[in-house]
Every structure is written in C-alpha cells, then in structure tokens.
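One thing: mind reviewing this one?
=====
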Amino acid sequence: MANGGQKRTRSQRVASIELPPNRWERSLEYLRHGSVLMRIGLALLAGVIMWGLISGWAPPFSYRTGYIPSRDIIARLDFRRPQKENEELANEKEKARNAVQYVYSQDATPLINMRGALRNKVVAMRDAAKVEELDSEIWNEFLLPGEKRPDAEELSRMREDLANDEKLDSFESALKHAFADIEKNGILKELKQGHDQGNQFVIQVHPKGDAKWPIAVKLVDVQSGEAIAQLKNRLRKEPEIAPPEVFDRVVAWLEPKLKNLNTLDIDEELTNKEKDDAAARVVKQEVRHEKGKPLAKAGQPLGEPEISLLRDEYNAELAQLTFWQRAVRSSAVMGMFAALGILCGIYVAHRVPRLFASMRRFAILAAIVTTVAVCLVASRDEFRAELIPLLLFGMTVAIAYQQELALLLSAAVALIVVIGIGQGLAEFVILLSGVSSAILLMDRIRSRSKLIYVGLCSGVVVSLTAVGVGILDRQPLDSNHFELLKDAGRVGMWAVVAGFLMTGLLPFIEKMFNVLTDISLLELGDVAHPLLQELVRRAPGTYNHSINVASIAEAAAESIGARGLLVRVGAYFHDIGKMLKPQYFAENQGVGGNRHETLVPTMSTLIIIAHIKDGADLARQHHLPPPIVDFILQHHGTTLVEYFYHRANMQSEADPHGTAVQESSFRYPGPKPQSKEAGVLMLADAVESACRTLVGPTPARIEGLVHDLMMKRLLDGQFDESGLTLQELHTVEESLVKSLTAVYHGRVKYPDQRTA
C-alpha cells in the first residue's frame, strides 16, 4: 500500500492527480527558454530600429511634386519662413561680394634690396680715389634729366657730402625712414582687379606670409605714381639727405626703378573668404504666413515653390510638438509594430516553424529592416522608387520560403513604409498590388526570362492600379493634366526594373538561402554532369534504375502539387553512392554471380547501407546543393534491409548456439523523409526496384505490390516527418501504379518469336 502501508483517503487521491498544463502555462514555459527570449529581443530591436528609421515620434511630410490637391491647402498654424533665394536676393549678394576690399600680400623684399643697392652705389662713388676711376655706368644712373655726361664737380660735391661713415649711416637711416611707409603698404604698378570687382578705393594689405592682421590702405597711396610722389616728399623732408643736389640724384636713381616695380599680389584665398562672408551677411527677409491662409491652390500641380512652402510649414509644426505629443505618436507606432509582429509571428510559428528553428533563417528580420531603410531612401521625391526594394524583398521571400509568407511580410513592410513616408491608403494599395502580383506569379521559375515577365506583368498591374487609385483620390485625368499618367508610368517602370534586378540576383539568393529554383534544377539535371557520367560508366544498371525512378517519381509528385522537377533531379543522384561498389547491387550484377553469397548477412548489410554515406560524401565533394544531398540521405529513411535481415534470422535459427538478431543493425541510418518530395522518392525507389522481380507484371500484380510497399512504410512510420497526408499517399500510389503499368505493359507475341 502507498504511504508506508497506510491507505490514502479519497481527498488525498484526488489531490494527487495532476492535470496537464493549460495553454497559458505552456506559453509561459515556452517563453522561459533562452533562445525564445533572444528571438523576442531581436524582434523588439528590429521594431526600435524601424521606429527610428521612420521617425515614429513625428508625423511625416506627405506632399510630393506633381500632386494636384482637390481643395486649397490651408496653413494649419502661423509660421515664418526666410525669403526665397530669388534673383533680387542673388543680386544683393553679388553686390556685397563686389563691394569687399580685396586682400593683397605685400612683399617688401624688392624695396629693401633697392635701398641696399642704392647704398652700395653711393659707397662705390664715395670710395673712388679719383673721379676718373669711377665707373661711368654708376654715375650715369644718377644723371639728372637733361644731363648727358657726368660732371666732375657735381660728383666731388656729392662725395664730400657722404665723405665719412657717420654721414653714410645718417644717409642710410634717413633713407630707411623715408621708405618705411612704402615698404609697409607696397607699390602697385597696375590694378589687378577689374573696375567692377571689389572696392576701388581701399584694399587690405598684409605682409607676405603673415595674414593675421591686414591693414586698410587707400588704393591711391600704393599706385605707382602716387607712391613715388609721396616717397619724394619724404626724402625731401629728411635733413640727412640735404643738400638738394644729393636729393635730386637719389630721386633720379630711384624713380625709373620704382615705376617698373610691383610688390603687391592679390591673396585669392583671403579675398574669396571676405566675399563669402559679405554674401552671408546679406540677411534674408522673413515672410510671415498666417494660420488659415492658402498655401497651395486647388487643381494646380504642386511645384517646387509650393513644396518648399509646405515643408517650411511642416518644420514649424515639428518645432511646436510637445513631448507628450511625440510620446503619444511613438506609442501608436510601436503598438502598430507590435500588432504586425504578433500577427506575423503567429503565422510563422504555425505555418513556417523552420524560420524560428534557425537563427540564420531568423535573420529575415534584418532583411525586413534593411528593406524598410532602402524603401525610405528610394522614396525621395526625385526618385519615388520605393516599389523596387519592396518587390525584391517579396520575390526573395517567395523564392526562399513560400508565397503566402511573402504576401504577409510584404504587406507588413508596405504598411510600415507608407506610414513612414506619409502617403496614406492610396500608396499602400499601389505598393501592395505591385508586390502581390509579382509574388503570385513566382510559382515556377523555369527560365531566366520568367522574372522579367514577372516584372512586366507586375508593372502593368501596378500602373493600372495607380491610375484607378488616383482617380478615386480625385486626381484629374484630362488633356491639361498628365501627372497621374506620369506617376503610373513611373511605378510601372520601377516594377520592370525590379524584374531585371531579380534576374541578376537570383543565383546569389539561391546560394544564400540554400534553395533551388527550376532554373538551377534544369541545369543540375543535365545528364552531362560529371557524377552522372561516372555513374553510367561504373554502374549502368543503377543509372538506368535512377532514370526510371526519376520518371515515375516526377509524375507522382506533380499529382499532389509537390515539386516534380526537384524530385526528378534528386532521383538522378539518389544512388550515386553505389558506383563505389557497383557489383554488390543486383541491378549491376551480370554473369559474375552474386557476391553476397560469400558474405555474412551483417557484412552485406553494411555494404548496402554504405551507399547512403558514400553518395552524400560524393555529392558534397562535387558541391551539389543541400536539398539534393537530403534526397540521398533520406530516400531509404530508417527502413529495414529485409532480405539480409531474414537471412540472418534463418541462420540464427539453424544454429543451436545462435543469438537473437538485432533488427536495428539491419536498418538504414536515416533520417526519415523530411519533405513530401523525399517521401515520394522513397516510395518510387522501392516500387521500381520491386517491380523488376515480378514474373508477369500484370496491372493487378503491380497495384498489389505498390499498395503493400506503401502500407509497409506507412506502418513503419517512414512518412511521419514528411508532411504527406493519407489522401496524398493514396494519390501517389495511384500515380505510381499508372506509371509502372505503362512501363511494364504487355506486348503482342509474334508468330515467329521464340524464347531465347
């Protein structure tokens, strides 16, 4: 008895009964798993990113050029906007640029060198022992106007005035003092700026290499004639250069050289900066727009001026939004994301659970976020190409997973994009019509041109939808307004572009998602494939068996709506592992006899089963796609190698010391078929091999054989994981019987025909 021999009371027995957990308890238990929490966290992160992408806290700017409002667009609030960059403002800025003081760089080196050269000439005259010894060329430089040859008396007087070093130093100091202004401000031989370029009275001058503190200089003071005249006046006022004879000779030496001298060059960088600063200081006049005043007229297409005005109103509205208003809108957007996420999550959990099973497949969230981001960029007014990334996303999901999932996710993405760009229900209908028509046409892709035709058909559908929706939205369609037709043609063109892009992207999508389109299957099913050629050479019987299985399996798969082409190509390769030991398989055994006669059943079973692993290894070495490798691994499932199992049992029973035979040692390693296509191939492989053993294969015998083999595998649980229903198995059975009956049909025996 329980509880140490004590009999339990009725209440204790009732209390000990534990009911299975209800739905909520099961859900909470499921949510406690770390992988589930990680996926939920990634979904939340995707929602936050999309909220940021569409600026979920603020309403979007919803106007586009070319839109024709059915009524006047009225200002919703008072706002100010700067005066538009019109021609008048541009002229004012140009005037400001032309009024700036040009900046010049002053290089005083030539003037300093000139002073040094003058001193050296004077020293040379002073130091000559006699007048006759002085180089006449030096004296000629000091000739006064009208003099033709040197005057010895004048030269002697000038030498006396500069007879010693003290007088020479005084002369040099006076010369430096007189040159101070011209060395600071410079001398300009000719004006380098046009009469309509910059200030014509004042310029800015800075020493060469030091532009930090330029000074303002009157232009007239640095022009060559005036600068020389001012220098003469300063030289005349210097007492150290008296008497006048010395002054006149110095001026005679300096004047021709100063006339050809230019020490000022325009500093382009600083001058342009001054011009830009002057233009920037021209202040735009603000225009005030009052609430209730019209911003755009009804019946007139919105152009750039109206869009600019409406955007200024939009920016003013954003600036007035309170934190509470932003929070309320953010909550609404995140609530919509949550609703879409729950809807899509429930569908995926029930219809496409493999998306949740792998983090790699769950990365479709990243594809959704990326699609939203690209759509927002492509939706700019100058492009309006948000349909392209949406179509590419929808077609990719349809190829990689299924059309129903593609429709659901594309509708969710389209809704998010429409909310992000503020285009409303009309835009949502247009986008959804384009992507839906493309997805529904993506059932079978058997040629490269199919995707282009999908784009063309989708373009026609979306163009007609755009026209119809535009008319319902009161967009005029008459001889004066063609904006609606232009928009319809634009979206139709984007659909065609998406078809061409998808054609180029298809191989990469197949590789990324490990899927096979009919195009790839047709290429892969070429009998010139190296593995198939090697199979013909080494195991011709197996090759013939594979071709027959491919034929009947394709028809059976098509009868239940499965992918017949995939089954056919999988059947071509399902037995390639037999080419390594072809003589151990009945279809390849000729007059040499059966090699299994000399082997124990266990060894024979190992050889037979090994063709599964050998075939998978060969397939991977030759880079066959994973779905084909799955056919090789799953076409026998975990079925029993019956012949050698029964043979082992007979030997064990005949041996007095024999032990019981372990059935598991005679089963294939599996896995069981994981898809409908793999289940069909398993059954087709079994019945084709078995029909070869029939003596007099009448339709009744074939039908009985196919039914027995199907029931045996059904009761053995081989189809439990394939998704095949009993109705589908019955349909497959009928198709196989029909195909095999056609292959093994009776033939007319001619009178002279004899048995060999």
